[in-house]
Write a structure and sequence with these properties.
By secondary structure, the chain is α/β, with parallel strands linked by helices. The chain has 4 domains: 222 residues, ANL, N-terminal domain (Rossmann fold, 3-Layer(aba) Sandwich), CATH 3.40.50; 194 residues, Rossmann fold (3-Layer(aba) Sandwich), CATH 3.40.50; 103 residues, 2-Layer Sandwich (GMP Synthetase, Chain A, domain 3); 82 residues, Non-ribosomal Peptide Synthetase Peptidyl Carrier Protein, Chain A (Orthogonal Bundle), CATH 1.10.1200. Helix content is 32%, strand content 20%. The strands form 7 sheets. The chain has a 5-stranded mixed beta sheet with strand order 11-12-13-14-15. Strands 16, 17, 19, 20 and 21 form a 5-stranded antiparallel beta sheet that branches. A 4-stranded mixed beta sheet has the order 2-1-10-9. Strand 3, helix 3 and strand 4 form a beta-alpha-beta unit. The longest helix is centred in the N-terminal third of the chain and has 17 residues. It starts with 5 loop residues before the first helix and ends in a 12-residue tail after the last helix.
Length: 628
């Protein structure tokens, strides 16, 4: 497949469908002609601000129309786009800008305050709204057109930091082109499709979500930001917006299922749900097939960011739900899977090995980190006179399932997790994901995460965190509050696991997520024995407002809130924000925005904001005593 730069593909869409909607958001619709004109103006302003081919340009633009404009402008210059997530904490954003200093920061609508807080002194800031509308300069949209090459650096995304400090992955232009044209052909995506936008701008998969539709003249469709935090509303949006294709992590897919199945949503336009980033649980796929059959395809994708989004794929079948894990399938074109043992030798079929991916479409490496690049990437000779190929060591384990056939010439790969998900307790090897899967099988549990903890001076033990499904099931494992009964959960596990694999601690809690929707295992904190009583310096709720806000948090998160300085996201808050905001409105008659909540985040801060709002609206003081 001959290389063609992604912005050239988009230019073809502009020529064919100038008046068709390129990006549709909750507030507006942007045509291909308007997108093209805006991108040219932004590219010209970037050039005047000093950006050149190879320059790093950070982008703080959650709005998909803004983000699409920014990406195209950066690509047209031959520069490198580094999208950021405006919902991230400012200290993290500041650190990312420090680790990979940009030459310009593009700022989308509503992000001006955040940009001012995180930008180092002297960094040029360009506000997309003013530039796109032609308000900042009357010199037109002239700038030098870069002649693209397949190995040009074009994007930079940071890893989640699950293995330490985040690393910046530098991607090549040819790899984006290769992936997008492959997926468009695989699924038959054409100009009539509507592709959902659920991924954080800080995750490399946003390139897939946004540029795939734009490359074929289709429409990228984005929900209102608050819907991403409300699974029920999100499921109804997918249905009502007539979305054809959704990409999401399995955790988000699982959160959508209760509404999709319970409300009997038909999803008449939906053709495919593509899942990646986590292991797809067979029980979730089975529930989907029971309701929708195979009319809406489930596509399981696997591929680290270091190898450009996806490198293996598998269309899930009902038969797969009887397996202990859904296969991740076989490699896409121009990719080879190597399963190697600890000595670097290939393992035979059916044996477990570490997954290595050999492809000419890997990332260019880690930005300004040659040692980490050399440790993760190696180069091997190509076939014949072909180019050398990069091999990336994933750190993930898998095995080739038996029964390779003409339909699956490369065999079918089963994903077995990472080495750090395999632990030993009392000499017994325990697979943490197996324990999690068994917990999810219980009707009272919607989600589960298990970690190994080593208390000071004590043997290691397992700690499980479980989210309530909101139903007690036949066994009555949830009380009136909907909190799973931990004793019954232990009995459920004891019947199925070695005693060493039954968690010593089971904590009902809202499980934290990363910005990409994955379970944030680094944020899971087991309750220490000393934490059973309030800390000596804890500040208990001091008035009726704080007591009511603390009670709301305790009810929603199933975690006692005994210190008004506790930050919401350190005690399992994430997708629960919308529920908390709704209950605050019910209790006080005050409507707080998500931005308000993110700016305060503690019981103390939220209580003060509630009181301030009530005073400003001359609300009756009796509201301060409103019951839950």
């Amino acid at each position: 497949m001959a290389f063609e730069a992604i912005h050239s593909l988009v230019a073809r869409s502009v020529a064919r469908f100038p008046d068709r909607t390129a990006v549709e958001t909750a507030d507006a619709a942007l045509s291909y002609r308007a997108l093209d004109e805006r991108a040219d103006r932004v590219a010209a302003q970037l050039h005047r601000a000093g950006a050149r081919a190879g320059s790093l340009v950070s982008v703080l633009a959650p709005d998909r129309a803004d983000l699409a404009t920014a990406l195209l402008a950066v690509l047209r210059l031959g520069a490198v786009a580094a999208p950021l997530d405006g919902a991230a904490q400012t200290h993290r954003l500041s650190r990312l800008l420090s680790d990979a200093p940009p030459e310009v920061l593009l700022v989308g609508a509503g992000q001006e305050k955040t940009a001012a807080e995180i930008a180092p002194a002297g960094l040029p800031l360009l506000e997309l709204g003013a530039v796109q509308d032609g308000l900042t300069d009357d010199r037109g949209a002239d700038y030098p057109r870069h002649v693209p090459g397949p190995d040009d650096p074009c994007y930079l995304f940071f890893t989640s930091g699950s293995t330490g400090r985040s690393k910046a992955i530098l991607g090549r232009l040819g790899a984006v082109d290769h992936y997008l044209r492959w997926e468009a052909e695989l699924l038959g995506v054409d100009s009539g499709w509507r592709v959902g936008q659920l991924i954080s701008p800080a995750f490399d998969a946003v390139l897939r979500d946004l540029l795939l539709p734009l490359s074929v003249g289709a429409t990228a469709v984005a929900p209102a930001p608050e819907l991403r935090l409300d699974p029920a509303a999100l499921a109804h949006w997918i249905d009502g917006a007539r979305v054809d294709l959704v990409h999401c992590v399995p955790s988000v897919f699982r959160s959508l299922l209760p509404t999709a199945l319970g409300d009997d949503l038909g999803f008449p336009a939906l053709r495919c749900v593509a899942l990646s980033g986590e292991r797809l649980v067979p029980a979730d796929a089975a529930r989907w097939f029971d309701r929708y059959g195979e009319r809406v395809r489930l596509l399981n994708l696997y591929g680290p960011s270091e190898t450009t989004m996806t490198k293996l794929y598998h269309f899930v079948t009902p038969a797969d739900t009887a397996l202990r894990s859904i296969p991740i399938g076989r490699p896409m074109p121009d990719t080879e899977v190597l399963l190697l043992d600890e000595r670097g030798e290939p393992v035979p079929e059916g044996r477990v090995g570490e997954i290595h991916l050999r492809t000419p479409y890997a990332a260019l490496g880690y930005h300004r980190d040659p040692e980490a690049t050399a440790a993760a990437f190696t180069t091997t000779p190509g076939s014949g006179s072909g180019p050398a190929l990069t091999v990336y060591r994933t750190g993930d384990f898998g095995r080739l399932l038996p029964g390779a056939s003409e339909a699956s010439p490369a065999g079918t790969l089963e994903f077995l997790g990472r080495k750090d998900h395999q632990v030993k307790i009392g000499g017994v090897r325990v697979e943490l994901e197996e324990v999690e899967a068994l917990l999810r099988e219980h009707p009272s549990v919607a989600e589960a995460a298990v970690i190994l903890t080593e208390p000071d001076g004590a043997p290691p033990l397992l700690c499980a965190f479980v989210e309530s499904s909101g139903t007690s099931g036949a066994s009555g494992a949830s009380g009136a509050s909907g909190v799973p009964d931990t004793d019954l959960l232990r009995e459920h596990l004891a019947e199925r696991l070695h005693p060493a694999a039954v968690p010593s601690v089971i904590v009902p809690a809202r499980i934290p997520r990363t910005v990409t929707g994955k379970i944030d295992r680094k944020a899971l904190r087991p309750p220490a024995p000393a934490a059973q009583t309030p800390a000596d310096d804890a500040v208990a709720p001091r008035n009726a407002t704080e007591r009511t806000v603390a009670a709301i948090w305790t009810a929603v998160l199933a975690v006692p809130i005994e210190d008004v300085r506790t930050r919401f996201f350190t005690v399992g808050g994430s997708l629960a924000v919308i529920t908390v905001l709704s209950r605050i409105k019910d209790s006080f008659g005050v409507s707080l925005t998500l931005a308000d909540f993110l700016a305060h985040q503690t019981v103390e801060g939220i209580a003060r904001l509630v009181e301030k709002t009530l005073v400003e609206t001359d609300a009756d003081d009796d509201l301060f005593g409103s019951p839950l």
